[in-house]
Design goal:
The structure is a homodimer of 446-residue chains.
Chain A lengths: L5 E2 L2 H6 L14 H11 L5 H28 L7 E2 L1 H9 L3 H19 L6 E5 L2 E9 L2 E5 L8 H14 L3 E5 L11 H10 L3 E3 L3 H10 L9 E3 L4 H10 L4 E2 L7 E6 L5 H12 L6 E6 L2 H16 L4 H8 L4 E4 L3 H11 L3 E5 L4 H4 L7 E4 L5 H6 L25 E7 L3 H17 L3 H13 L1
Parallel strand pairs in A: 1-12, 5-6, 5-8, 6-7, 8-9, 10-11, 10-13, 11-12, 13-14
Antiparallel strand pairs in A: 2-7, 3-4, 4-15
């Protein structure tokens, strides 16, 4: 039976389980590599393969989009568009209880994000009006993974904040479910609940290219958001600049900090929940308690046996998961800030006393009741959060991601007279005499 | 004498002067290409050259950083660090009047950005505490161009919003002034005024690599901001993800909308001010008035003769500048929104009546007094704004660029009991039974 490993020293953990690979260090799996070589007739890196796919879709539009969907996802489509009838059918084929659960989740996500403040402002002083006009983006594209799995929660967690921001056109792309020609029913049901404008049954780098540059069926969007696999993220990086990219999502991570007061059964359950995402997922426990570490290790082994995804979990346990013994909670916090996890869960006697020390984390889950699995589905804040240490500078997906600012400049004669000469002095110093002239001509006119 | 061209139809302008090249379509100049071939011993694209420089700095730290500074900027340095003494010397060697002008500019930039709202919030409901913790980034790197020119205003426009956000460590990188071993005095003076933490006398892709990955002298930063040339921007795109990148700045653009009421002398002066930045700069006038178009054309030719940078201006006039005749102001606004300019200047009889129609622009300058040159130096809002149509999704540099969000999740037993079963239902539907188990184990405990 696979074990979750206990690291006796922080130093050892730092050189192993706390290390993350950057996007450029990630390889396609051996199977994917073989497949790439077959598809392109020569061995290509994922980066090169993605560049070719993007160039093809950019040049050949829908034809290329559908051809790549056939080659990579095995679905033979006439059009990339998910029709209204298909969405209705997905809704009808989704069990009532699940539809209600998704609706509740949608309501809570909306309620949370509506509390964000993001208004325009203006400040009128004597003869001056300066401010920031804050407006929603006009068209955004949300990537929802599909194929093997179905992620209606991800659709809700991205589309609803976009809607709260006031984005008039919300596109969703998602690859067809394995062996079908649309995304899964439950994903279609979520699209209906979220009220997305248009959905496309395509995924991968080809879908990112279509969103970035447009095709006959897909109008190009202003920004692309959402999680995806290696090809999707490499494509996002390649189109960055032609289109807005909120972040480059990587494998998911959870870091738990727990002390002797924690319930080992629940700590183990949380580690396993995180580890089941995929074999690249990281589930880490930092604890000063050897007793807790050992009990959790046993619990993990016991609970694992009964879980359907035990193969995937065993895969992640062998890679990016582990229990690290720390000196005390201060050291745990320090390590957590350095690691900058996507999710940080505090399962200690007094979790609130630690919140102020958290500097880098996508989301902080305070106490035993607020487990990450609840946050993944229903608490309210979007579950799309910065991974791979990008919580150093990135934020969870939020309403602000769907807004843009225009600065407003209006000054009167008084400000011009008072500050114009100084502006012209700086312009001269920068060697921009035409700038200085534009100001001085105005000063002469006053 | 070079002319600013008048385009009789919008269609013609759309296929010529209103077209912009994407980052991937930009070539190095023939001289730069020859230089690259010499430096690398083989012809490389700018993208490839940048990748090599980044890899070298990443592997070899300061040694590589200084070697590239020598090869590309001609400065032989012992250390990339600008010392305090060098900054003091720069300050002392900057004329008093210029120091005062920069200080006034700094005060106004600070006053504007302090008015931005960006606080954390929390909402306590029965047994729930949800919210967003908003915190400053810990270390940011600001790129200030140098070499041939000096841009103290850019330093102020980036560093002061960072300071207002509360960023504790603000790094500035700027290449040495031509023939010197530090940036220009006036840039050093601006660094002193803005109170930057540390300044480095390096530029180009090598400086971006040092900020992204760190060297012995440069600690890696969390986010890089500021304008730069082709190599700098390509480097920003390549390191995106390892470090935050606010946007990919391109050549500067100004679009003026003017009617018969506008003063042709000032319109011409504004077009020339914009055209003097560099030969890639775009200065465009949209007007329904043929009379204004023709008078401005004459004024441009006349004013140009007396300007020191007339060669650069002639270069941009021949490329991305022009006067486009439109049917009416509505058509001008429509075209402006499609073009999404960095700067949009409204020189019409009633400019405020047009502001509501502006959808895509970095900054909007309302009326004749609020000219862009004033905004470049002293009005207050940062002059670093989205270019190359990225105003569709990007914003001017503002305080928010220096902040990050952590979502706060805390729920009580009541919320768990009420929504936990539904969360577990969705988890089951997604095939994440360990997620469902983590929730159900908690429900059993209540």
């Amino acid at each position: 039976m696979p074990d979750i490993r206990i690291f006796e020293t922080v130093e050892e953990a730092k050189t192993t389980v706390l290390q993350r690979r950057s996007l450029d260090e990630m390889d396609a799996s051996p199977q994917a590599q073989t497949r790439l070589a077959e598809l392109f007739g020569e061995p290509l890196t994922p980066e090169q393969a993605v560049a070719r796919i993007i160039a093809d879709v950019r040049a050949n539009g829908d034809d290329a989009l559908l051809a790549w969907t056939y080659r990579l996802d095995g679905a033979e489509l006439d059009s990339p568009i998910v029709t209204k009838a298909e969405i209705e059918r997905g809704w009808e084929n989704t069990p009532r209880e699940l539809r209600q659960a998704l609706t509740t989740a949608a309501d809570r996500i909306r309620a949370f994000h509506e509390r964000e403040q993001h208004g325009s402002w203006m400040d009128w002083q004597t003869g001056e009006a300066l401010g920031q006009i804050v407006r929603p983006l006009e068209r955004v594209g949300i990537y929802v993974p599909g194929g093997q799995g179905a992620y209606p929660s991800t659709l809700l967690m991205a589309a609803i904040p976009a809607q709260v921001a006031g984005v008039p056109e919300i596109y969703v792309v998602s690859p067809p479910a394995r062996g079908q020609d649309t995304p899964a029913n439950v994903t279609l049901a979520a699209a209906r609940i979220a009220g997305v404008t248009r959905m496309f049954k395509v995924g991968g780098a080809q879908a990112i290219a279509a969103l970035a540059y447009g095709t006959e069926s897909v109008r190009r969007v202003d920004k692309i958001l959402g999680p995806g696999g290696l090809f999707v993220v490499l494509a996002m990086r390649q189109v960055f600049g032609s289109v807005g990219i909120a972040g480059l999502p990587g494998p998911t991570e959870t870091l738990l900090i727990a002390d002797d007061s924690a319930n080992p059964e629940l700590v183990a359950a949380d580690l396993l929940a995180q580890a089941e995402h995929d074999v690249l997922a990281s589930a880490l426990l930092l604890t000063p308690s050897r007793r807790l570490a050992e009990t959790v290790q046993k619990e993990v082994a016991e609970q694992l046996a009964g879980l359907p995804r035990h193969k995937i979990i065993a895969g992640s346990l062998a890679r990016g998961c582990g229990i690290v013994l720390v000196r005390d909670l201060d050291e745990a916090l320090e390590l957590a800030n350095e690691y900058a996890p996507e999710h940080l869960c505090l399962l200690t006697e007094d979790p609130w006393s630690l919140v102020g020390q958290v500097r880098n984390a996508g989301g902080v889950f305070v106490g035993e009741t607020a487990c990450e699995a609840m946050g993944d589905y229903i608490v309210g804040p979007s579950h799309i959060m910065p991974t791979g240490q990008t919580a150093r500078f990135g934020s969870p997906l939020h309403v602000r991601d769907f807004l843009k600012v225009t600065s407003l400049f209006s000054i009167g004669i008084h400000t011009l007279q008072q500050t114009g000469p100084q502006a012209a002095t700086i312009a001269d110093a920068e060697g921009f005499q035409a700038h200085a002239a534009a100001i001085r001509r105005r000063l002469r006119g006053t």
